[in-house]
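## Example pair
The file below holds two records. Each record gives the amino-acid sequence first, followed by its structure token line.
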Amino acid sequence: MPARPPRLKQRREFQRVSSRGTRVARPGLVLQVLAGTEAPLRVGFTTTKKIGNAVTRNRARRRLREAARILLGEAAPAGYDLVLIGRDATATRDFRTLLGDLRGALKQAGLLKPAPVPDPVP
């Protein structure tokens, strides 16, 4: 089981990533990336009241944490701060689709390398 990446917890850390970083949007989430930090990869999770009540927001954050743990667990690139922002669809979206959204956002941001294509067997 991959370990959890370290977390962003303070408001000023989230604001720094938001103001200086790049942004990638997908239907299930928004990814903000700030490169050039000296620390190992750190991830923060947030949702707004626009997506629903506390139960819905907590569910969205739990799903984002699990998706990040799966995709970033052991092969996490160092030197980045990430913020994952939940959207309306995050809490109800099929989990495989949510993983695909995160994978696509990470690839677009340049954090995940494309999977190698296997050689065809003659």
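Second record, same layout:
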Amino acid sequence: MSNQEEIYDQAGFGRPVPRGHRPAVIVVDFSYGFTDTQYPTAADMSDEISNTRKITDLARAMGFPVIYTTIAYQAAELDRLAWLRKSEGMKALLQGSRLVEIDARTGISPQDSIVVKKGASAFFGTNLAAFLASAQVDTVIIAGATTSGCVRASAVDAVQAGFNVLVPRDCVADRARAPHDHNLYDIQQKYGDVTDCDDLLQWLACLDAGC
């Protein structure tokens, strides 16, 4: 154990998250504006999309909710929202444009929900928490983009809303490695368990088998 890990451990952080029996999968912002590299706001997230699809396909087949999020702005909002003053490139995510459509490689289905948001968190200003509560969800698997932005914000708000949080490291992506790694470390210490696709597939299969 490194000195850094010892500091967190002695402070009581990094404890394992209990896993419930009613999971949902939240796929954060795997829209073309983030996944299609012809757009300057995007990065190559092909592997993360492929891994995420394994989880969503299984969860959907088991009857668990699969929710996608996208950021979409109306033209009238572009010069008024504070976030867009800092992250000006996000102004390209206009409602009705291809950039805000969910990437078809995710395997999104007509039975899945789509949450449209204006900020980083999937929960802020949306009905997501109410939707999950009504579906009796106790644990959320959070995948998507970006690790240091919308994934992290969604993980923080998910645990604050009362849900156990699981983040598969090979299902989340960022534009650079350092913020990806740093934010996964922070999520693991404070907000949820950072795991991987294979572990979650095994867990879901176990739930299906009545474990």
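Notes on the second record: The radius of gyration is 17 Å. Helices lie at 3-10, 32-35, 46-61, 82-86, 128-134, 147-160, 177-190, 197-208.
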